[in-house]
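chain below, 153 aa
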Amino acid sequence: NLWGWVELHSFLQPNSRGRPTCGGFTFERRCSVQLYTVYGITLLNELPSLRRAERVTAADPKVQVYSYSPGEFGKENILICHVSEFHPPDISINLLKNGIEIPNAKQTDLAFEQGWKFHLTRSVSFTPQKNEEYACRVTHMGIGKNFVWEADM
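prediction:
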């Protein structure tokens, strides 16, 4: 399932033969610092061996919904939704109480792992109450799914 390409760019201008240069060496031989653009996200990396576009396949997110402390009704806690191993980084995460987004949630910066898989964590303070449902809605590539928090009570 091919989704897209990782684009590789050199920082410096081409030499007289049209080849990118870095530190006086042609890119093919010894350029250690390169700029990558992955679906609009710019990354700085040291990967001299990557010389042409690399195929990247789509991967569905793995989702974990949990609380910082064991769930207790009426006691303040933190609701956490960790989403990992997804590609492309076209994703949104919402924390919900009875289907309505909980305000003031915080989210980590988008980070990537080996193989261009990404991960994010979103969290918010909440006080669980009986007969209320808390969930994490993850929308990846336009497809949304809710993951319900279980209080372990």
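The chain has one helix and 15 strands. Residues 2-57 form one domain.
thats it, cya
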